[in-house]
Amino acid sequence: MGDERETPPGSINEDEPQVNQDELILAQQRQIEKELGDLEPVSSLNNEYSTDPIYLEKVKDLSTKYKYVRRTRPDGNCFFRAFSYANIERLLEKKDEFNQFYKLAEESKDVLVELGFQQFTVEDFYDTYMEVLKRLRNIDDIDEARKELHTLFNEQGFSDYMVVYLRLLTSGQLQKEHEFFSCFIEGDRTVADFCHQEVEPMYKESDHIHIIAACAALNTGVRVIYMDRGTGRTCNEHDLPEGCTPTVHLLYRPGHYDILYP
Amino acid sequence: MAGSALRRLMAEYKQLTLNPPEGIIAGPINEENFFEWEALITGPEGTCFEGGVFPAKLIFPPDYPLSPPKMQFTCEMFHPNIYSDGRVCISILHAPGDDPMGYESSAERWSPVQSVEKILLSVVSMLAEPNDESGANVDAAKMWRENREEFNNIAEKIVRRTLGIPT
């Protein structure tokens, strides 16, 4: 998942003329100049599928559970950008949890350095990450804080550095729990190799394993709603890690994640 | 984000100056412009490039370290992984998925936590152990495989030239 090479099993009916997902995604990329768009009603997804009854049915199902969608730039970083944004956004309403999260973030650089990351390669990303959190912490009005979050995540300099830092935290988590995660890595790559090739570089898309490690790194859970051309009228949902109480909701369409709001 | 790139390049320069890896010197050509560096790389011992001092240029993009720099030797070179114009072609200078030479999936790739030092160390290993599967210079790759003696002779001449010794 989250990777053009893989599709969830049974999701695409080979006999169907396939909607050209690549073209749709390219169109979306041109359309949103922003890293993250404004809130749009879930029904706005209909515009992309006006001739596709399967998707239309699923958008209908989706709109019974969610009110809004926030689109993200489909550049391979979408999971990390969406997850980082949505997680901070929901913490803005919860001062105590925000402060706990802040403390965890403050300590995170030392953890990475202990794991073997060179300090000077991590520093700038950490500093940007903390600066964003600090700026948000200093704003008392929640709506103002939301606006600031949106502004910062749409400034490429901040936004990309937030993405990199979450990639590094995810890599750190995978390496910390390498014994557990090694079972999920195909081929004879070590967890560290996997991190260097699939997690740390920008624009590499995310799979289940990235999501589970990112959730553990940020100490939260996510619900992913899968919307594809698979049979059935409803979208499948998946909580990661399994059995968690999800705080962040993401919409997955083959190759891409956007944020959902109940 | 040229500001972040500059900050990072200054940090790397400091790191390389305080803690230089053996046989490598690198830094900005002119401290007014941190986006163009020169490096001097000593040929690794026990290889046909031993004793040579090879100058190269590194050009950094404005979004460094999100994207990798480009590297080019400015002296004559003859090596399977160096183009005839001196450009270096190794996996660490490419992000995953960017595969001009069909690198092995296990090969080291660019990411924001790589560094100039790691690149230069990879280049030293490349000089010691050419990868003749990825032929940036096909003639050199062929000669490395089939006529090692001739390859070593050419390398020796290049080494002498970098030192200003008549060949």
Give the terminus-to-terminus CA distance of chain B: 47 Å
Overall shape of chain A: globular
End-to-end separation of chain A: 23 Å
The number of distinct helices of chain B, counting runs of at least 4 residues, comes to 4
The number of E-state strands of chain B comes to 4
Q: Give the proportion of residues in helices of chain B.
A: 25-40%
* Fraction of residues in β-strands of chain B: 15-25%
Q: Based on the structure given, which CATH architecture of the largest domain in chain A is correct? A: Up-down Bundle
Q: Structural class, from secondary structure content of chain B?
A: alpha+beta
Tell me, rounded to a whole number, the average pLDDT of chain B: 91
Oligomeric composition of the shown chains: heterodimer
The domain tally of chain A reads 2
String of helices and strands of chain A: HEHEHHHHHHHHEEEE
Strand order of the largest sheet of chain B: 1-2-3-4
What are the defining features of this structure?
heterodimer, A: 262 residues, alpha+beta, 3 helical TM bundles of succinate and fumarate reductases, 2 domains, 6-stranded mixed beta sheet, 6 strands, globular, disordered N terminus, B: 167 residues, 4-stranded antiparallel beta sheet, 32% helix
In summary, what is this structure?
The complex is a heterodimer of chains A (262) and B (167). Helix content of chain A is 51%, strand content 13%. With 262 residues, chain A is α+β, with helices and mostly antiparallel strands.
